[in-house]
Structure to design on (287 residues):
């Protein structure tokens, strides 16, 4: 499978100028929405900024967050002190192919914005997941929305898709996994604002809260053994034909399913704890 317009995502494309312009514009938009039009309160922002700027060479960063609106990215990166206009430091993000890559113009725009198209429902071994692994191999920062779609209800974190867990397991260097929960962006860009439609522009005078947790530790050798043990008791399931993962004792499909489930549930529990905490943040801007 050919990767969609991958050439436009390369840093050297046209000397990097189009990418820089996209992030200058997108970063300015995020700053305006998050700090000028609205009030944003951030907990533990310094941890994220430190990991973006100063993590060990070659070690990738994988941030995970809930998904409350279509403007979560880039607005969640618009808080004070965050280098939102710096294209070199900016995240790569997994994005829905059916929304962001519907035509050539959108595909080019989002590729310049360091977006990786994901075909929802095509599974964890689709070609663009391999592209995400390539970025992790480069030591880059990737952001994912593991719930898989926008949810604006004030409800517990839903069951996470296994794509994020598979990136953690399959990456050549295990990434630093940092959870982020935000609240309020569903009011900035509500799905049902006027006759079931979103507003044409983000709304204002809202309060955005962002809670950044601490890095989640994963003892992959121990979790792998746990998954292998659980897989022996796994009831029958429809095999898709996943290849074994040689890096982790040749994990077969059954063991992979167990391992991805274990990791996803751990991330989900941390995210839910942050979700409860984020709503207690006061209405003031801080990092």
């Amino acid at each position: 499978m050919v990767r969609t317009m991958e050439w436009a995502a390369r840093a050297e494309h046209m000397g990097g100028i189009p990418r820089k312009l996209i992030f200058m514009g997108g970063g300015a938009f995020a700053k305006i929405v998050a700090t000028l039009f609205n009030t944003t309160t951030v907990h533990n922002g310094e941890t994220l900024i430190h990991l973006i700027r100063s993590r060990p060479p070659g070690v990738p960063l994988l941030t995970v967050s809930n998904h409350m609106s279509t403007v979560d990215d880039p607005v969640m990166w618009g808080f004070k002190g965050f280098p939102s206009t710096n294209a070199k430091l900016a995240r790569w993000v997994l994005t829905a192919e059916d929304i962001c890559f519907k035509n050539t113009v959108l595909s080019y725009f989002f590729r310049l914005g360091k977006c990786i198209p994901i075909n929802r429902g095509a599974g964890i071994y689709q070609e663009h997941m391999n592209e995400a692994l390539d970025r992790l191999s480069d030591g880059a920062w990737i952001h994912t929305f593991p719930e898989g779609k926008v949810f604006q209800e004030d409800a517990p974190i839903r069951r996470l898709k296994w794509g994020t867990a598979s990136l953690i397991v399959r990456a050549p260097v295990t990434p630093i996994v940092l959870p982020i929960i935000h609240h309020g962006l569903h009011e900035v860009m509500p799905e049902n604002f006027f006759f079931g439609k979103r507003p044409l522009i983000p709304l204002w005078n809202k309060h955005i809260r962002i809670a950044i947790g601490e890095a989640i530790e994963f003892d992959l050798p121990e979790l792998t053994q746990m998954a292998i043990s659980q897989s022996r008791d796994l009831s029958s399931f429809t095999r898709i034909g996943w290849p074994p993962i040689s890096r982790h004792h040749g994990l077969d499909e059954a063991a992979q399913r167990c391992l991805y489930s274990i990791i996803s549930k751990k991330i989900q529990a941390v995210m839910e704890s942050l979700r409860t905490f984020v709503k207690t943040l006061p209405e003031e801007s801080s990092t």
Notes: The beta strands are 39-43, 61-65, 92-96, 115-118, 141-144, 176-183, 207-212.
